[in-house]
Amino acid sequence: MIQLSKETLLEKMVAAGRLTSKQLIELKGQALAGKKSIFQVAVDAGVLKDEEVTDILSEEYGIPVINLQALKISKELVKSIPARLIERYQIIPVSRIGKLLTVAASNPFDLMMRDDLKGITQCEVSLVLAPSRAITAAIDAHATESANIHQIIEEIDDESLQIVKDEKGAAEDKPVGRDSAEEAPVVRMVNLILEGALRSRASDIHFEPYEHEFRIRYRIDGALRESFSHSREMYPSLVARMKIISQLDITEKRVPQDGRFRLKMEQREVDFRVSILPTYYGEKIVLRVLDKAGLKSGLDKLGFTEKPTAVIAEAIKSPYGMMLVTGPTGSGKSTSLYTILGTLNTPDRNIMTIEDPVEYQVEGITQTQVIPEVGLNFASGLRSLLRQSPDIVLVGEIRDGETADIAVKAALTGHLVFSTLHTNSAPGAVTRLIDMGVEPFLIASSLVCVAAQRLMKRICPFCKKPYRVPEDVLRRCGMTESDLEGLTAYHGSGCAKCNQTGYYGRLGAIEVMKVDGEIRQLIIQRKSSRIIQDAAIRKGMETLYENAFSLFKQGLTTLEEVLRVSSAER
């Protein structure tokens, strides 16, 4: 390592008053004893700030400074450098153009580091500066994924995962890991993937085959994140294993297949819905994780704000009528409806559902899954279900005019009906039903309330800190900094807990339109959804944007998330 002479940088720092002569002597002794850079010792001792050291080195030696947080570093580029070198020299590669490799370092004076990198990569090495903490964070961000996978492999207990026999008796009833010796690697890989998903709070697992490898991705808090990739030699056996535990045909590889299985881990039972689709490089598998632990025990546990929760609580007390929940796929509609059914699930009520598919199996509720190939669809199933004397009915989704007409008429004949629609706003549900051919007077007479909801990312509590909202975000909101006066905006700076995303978990934003006399008259008059919305707002409805913004003001989410979930409604 090149030692910086007293006559140059260190003397200048003393002369400038950044260090005293006494401090310099003490730091040199500590650096020599600890075999550390004198600058790192100064930072650790609080004599200098990390960023200050970077600026000093840049100023004296003309080495540019780079902002690692604003840079998207290629995962493949990081993998091209042995982890032992990255850890030893505390560096992170930032770009590679031809035979020129650019590396960020906090101490760029180590000749051995340059020589090692040049020998391994066969590239000329160009150095840029970054604070040591920023480099450590970048290294951790890229190492966490691989480290977590190896840690999970080591911690997996073959007896801890067990396929549960379903009510039909068509499933295994033995630990996942106790198969024949030749199947052990595949079984262990399946264990790794399933347990990793549960530990990561994943809602979906994607098995994706490519030409030379396959990769596993988890959907966590609404975003897909790569867990790991592996050479594709094991992939056909992995697919076969998934088909076996899902009770699917392992010989059929030309057509899509759907199945499900239940897994027991540490006294916790979780259902998985399986979808297999033939692709160019093999069969892609997507598992939907259906964890009953995610279902809430009451409306107040859904996480909505107080006002819309009170409107819903009042609406579900109606002896008959229809409540709709709208929103895109993955917005939490099913969770909300199952929570409502759980609230109403008492021994004196007959609750029945028709779903595609049955997502959560709930004790005390009669659930039916549609089977289109034998003619059991939503419309025919609902027609038969109504002959079973139900008090409360859940229709998984209203997809066509026939189902909509039957559901509306059921709500008018003494049944409390719940269902979902794909619309952007609560008032938009009325227009959608009219477009399906349902008469406005029937809608007006049956509809009790409509809720439109979205899932927003929650700021990670482990790295939450105040920040200044970017001007472009304010501009997209039609706001200026003065509009946020008195408010503290927060975001997550990124940490190992949130996988450097700044978000951990989700929360719901919702608008609930109560259908009263005035709204009914507007529906009968076929007024537009905008006019209906304006009337609902006058009566106190909080729009999706307003509800999301209130969560931002509480410091629970970011303004960027507010824009993401409500931009279409503004």
Quick summary of this structure?
With 570 residues, this protein is α/β, with parallel strands linked by helices.
Structural write-up:
This protein is an alpha/beta fold. It is built from 21 helices and 19 strands. The strands form four sheets. The protein has a seven-stranded antiparallel beta sheet. A seven-stranded mixed beta sheet has the order 13-12-14-15-11-16-19, sandwiched between helices. A hairpin with a 3-residue loop joins strand 5 and strand 6. Helix 18 runs antiparallel to helix 19. The protein is globular. The N terminus is likely disordered.
Secondary-structure topology with pairs:
Elements: H1 6-15, H2 21-34, H3 38-44, H4 50-61, H5 75-79, H6 83-89, E1 91-97, E2 100-105, H7 111-121, E3 124-129, H8 132-155, E4 161-163, H9 184-199, E5 204-209, E6 213-220, E7 223-231, H10 235-245, E8 257-265, E9 268-279, E10 282-291, H11 306-315, E11 321-326, H12 333-344, E12 351-355, E13 366-369, H13 378-385, E14 392-395, H14 401-412, E15 416-421, H15 428-435, H16 440-446, E16 447-459, E17 464-466, H17 471-476, E18 490-492, E19 503-514, H18 517-524, H19 529-538, H20 544-553, H21 559-566
Helix pairs in contact: 2-3, 9-10, 13-14, 14-16, 16-18, 18-19, 20-21
Characteristics of this structure?
570 residues; alpha/beta; 7-stranded mixed β-sheet; 19 strands; 23% strand
